[in-house]
Specification:
Pathway: Amino-acid degradation; L-histidine degradation into L-glutamate; N-formimidoyl-L-glutamate from L-histidine: step 2/3
Shape: globular
Mean pLDDT: 97
Radius of gyration: 22 Å
Catalytic activity: 4-imidazolone-5-propanoate = trans-urocanate + H2O
Bound molecules: nicotinamide-adenine-dinucleotide
EC number: 4.2.1.49
Oligomer: single chain
Distance between the termini: 58 Å
GO molecular function: urocanate hydratase activity
CATH topology of the largest domain: Urocanase fold
Function: Catalyzes the conversion of urocanate to 4-imidazolone-5-propionate.
CATH superfamily of the largest domain: Urocanase superfamily
Helix content: 40-55%
């Protein structure tokens, strides 16, 4: 039985014991499609997150996907091209049920302007990372990543946590909305600026943001008082970051940590230039997108200059994966790359061991299934501090959005072990229904993005996109239920290629085999990717866990 969705009443949250499709694998994928819209930012337009990341190309395409998932047999494979179903092939019961390629443009054509034109003609849709392949789970999907970044900074500079520290950031959208809660969990006093009052309200309503300040003076007083008392606090401010960051710098105030997660990657549909209202921006998207691009870039220049000022004054400043530095460089800020990218600065040693953002969703819709798996994780990985600390915190602080779900940064071997054990709990009826296992595309073997994931690699292979393509092929060979290859639209055009995977634990022996092969091979390729680039941690992991790495003599 679906449950009501107060945020988007027309998009109920799927769940219950009744099957509409011919099997649980198909039904689970259908529920994941429904779920990305239920927790999405603008489901009426099929938009899930990151400005233009869509679940399907159009409503007719969406309808055809739903009808096919319901009607298809287990030995068929649905082929989706940029959010539109284009074929149903006869394969075999251990082949993927769904394969997708979303928004992959040929090299010289992979540009924002060409993407917008193709999207206007209805020929492509951007899948974001997790929107087009139905793996998005709301702000909870990146919250551990954001929390781990804050904790690495805390360990590096502030003695273990962010108590008494002022964090400045912007963006309270689908992904950026995780920041206030992650900051509070790291014990910081965090100020989050967003230009859209509706986004700030939503994050408050769903429990990710505590307060919304009426103006900058009040916001600063609130976070500074909380920091002085070492009291964790999250405060939202409705304003343009390109106004607020320079103003804070002008006042001589220097936060301890500064970042930004506005949708700066997309200069037309994402970033809002200063001096323009939201209505004016909406109108310019169709009437004069070139002007909007120019104005967004000009605002980003001021925004990033202020970030650089904070960095010069000693703040820990980092790029949180939204391409803001690249647009600043294009706008003339030659030293914008002095700001480090979060992957290289804090998380790469984890990726070398294929430890990354793994997640699972309870297809039953019952939160108790996630609690049972939480207990299993705590018991199975009792010696893994990152994971046990995270699960305890998540249980206390992270509200479920949509289908009950959990994220945990698990690595090679760990993911397979957990998923197979969960499959056993589905089989013996401990869990109410199947569980879907997936991960962010921003994972060890599955993303080439020279300005986010693969910047400054040791061997210089930043722009080599072979790795995610090999990963997707290995996942198909391993029988994952859904495999997707994505590239950038809008701001990310020409910047990235990534692979996504979902495997359903439906309690059958066949699912046990699929989980074992797909999850093990996915993380094996992650370790191999970093071992090949010459990272000692990955070479060590490759040898220790025998991932099948071939080293030339
Ligand atoms: P979103 O479109 O859901 O939200 C973006 C928010 O930015 C909106 O609320 C918008 O009002 C706000 N905004 C735009 N311009 C602004 C300005 N000048 N001042 C203040 N607020 C402004 O996007 P999202 O899903 O939250 O993603 C945000 C960015 O993070 C994207 O660039 C996305 O690609 C990137 N991202 C990074 C990671 C990561 O792992 N670090 C993960 C996912 C997404």
């Amino acid at each position: 039985m679906p449950s009501p969705n107060p945020r988007h009443p027309n998009f109920p949250i799927p769940g219950g014991p009744a099957l509409r499709a011919k099997g649980w694998r198909q039904e689970a994928l259908l529920r994941l499609l429904e779920n990305v819209l239920a927790v999405g930012e603008n489901p009426d337009e099929l938009i899930v997150y990151a400005a233009l990341g869509k679940a399907a190309r159009s409503w007719p395409a969406h309808r055809a996907i739903v009808e096919t998932l319901i009607a298809m047999d287990e030995d068929q494979t649905l082929v989706i091209q940029s959010g539109k179903p284009v074929g149903l092939l006869k394969t075999h019961a251990d082949a993927p049920l769904v394969i997708m390629a979303n928004c992959n443009l040929v090299g010289q054509w992979a540009k924002a302007e060409i993407f917008y034109e193709l999207e206007r003609k209805g020929l492509v849709a951007w899948g974001g990372l997790t929107a087009g392949c139905w793996q998005y789970i709301g702000s909870q999907g990146v919250i551990q990543g954001t929390y781990e970044i804050f904790m690495r900074i805390a360990e590096k500079r502030f003695g273990g946590d962010l108590a008494g520290r002022f964090v400045l950031t912007a963006g309270l959208g689908g992904m950026g909305g995780s920041q206030p809660l992650a900051g509070r969990m790291a014990k910081a006093a965090i100020l989050c600026v967003d230009v859209d009052p509706a986004r700030a309200r939503t994050r408050k309503e769903i429990g990710y943001l505590e307060e919304i300040a009426p103006d900058l003076d009040t916001a600063l007083a609130m976070v500074q008082a909380a920091a002085a008392e070492k009291r964790p606090l999250s405060v939202g401010l409705v304003a343009n970051a390109a106004d607020v960051y320079p103003e804070i710098a002008r006042r001589g105030v220097t936060p301890d940590v500064v970042t930004d997660q506005t949708a700066a990657h997309d200069l037309v549909y994402g970033y809002v230039p200063r001096g323009l209202s939201l209505e004016e921006v909406r109108a310019l998207r169709t009437s004069d997108p070139d002007r909007l691009m120019r104005e967004s870039r000009a605002s980003i220049v001021e925004h990033v200059r202020a970030m650089l000022t904070f960095q010069e004054r000693g703040a820990e400043v980092f790029d949180n994966g939204n391409l803001i530095r690249s647009h600043a460089v294009d706008g003339g800020v030659a030293n914008a790359y002095d700001i480090p990218i979060f992957t290289e600065a804090y998380l790469r040693p984890l990726f070398c061991r294929a430890i990354g953002p793994f997640r699972w969703m309870a297809i039953s819709g019952d939160p108790q299934d996630i609690r049972v798996i939480d207990d299993l994780v705590l018991e199975t990985f009792s010696g893994n501090h990152i994971v046990t600390n995270w699960i305890a915190l998540a249980r206390e602080h992270v509200p479920f959005e949509g289908l009950p779900a959990r994220i945990a940064w698990l690595g090679h071997g760990e993911r397979t072990r957990l998923a197979r054990a969960v499959n056993g709990l589905v089989a013996d009826g401990t869990l109410k229904g199947p569980v879907a296992f997936s991960r962010d595309h921003l994972d060890a073997g599955s993303m080439a993005h020279p300005r986010i994931m693969t910047e400054n690699l040791k061997d210089g292979s930043d722009a080599v996109a072979d790795w995610p393509l090999l990963d997707a092929m290995a996942l198909c060979s391993s029988g994952a239920d859904l495999v997707a290859i994505h590239s950038g639209g809008g701001g990310y055009a020409g910047f990235m290629t990534s692979a996504g995977v979902t495997v359903i634990a439906d309690g059958t022996p066949a699912a046990d085999g699929r989980l074992d092969r797909a999850l093990t091979n996915d993380t094996s390729l992650g370790v191999i990717r970093y071992a090949d680039a010459g990272y000692d941690e990955a070479l060590d992991e490759a040898q220790r866990s025998q991932v099948g790495h071939i080293r030339l003599g």
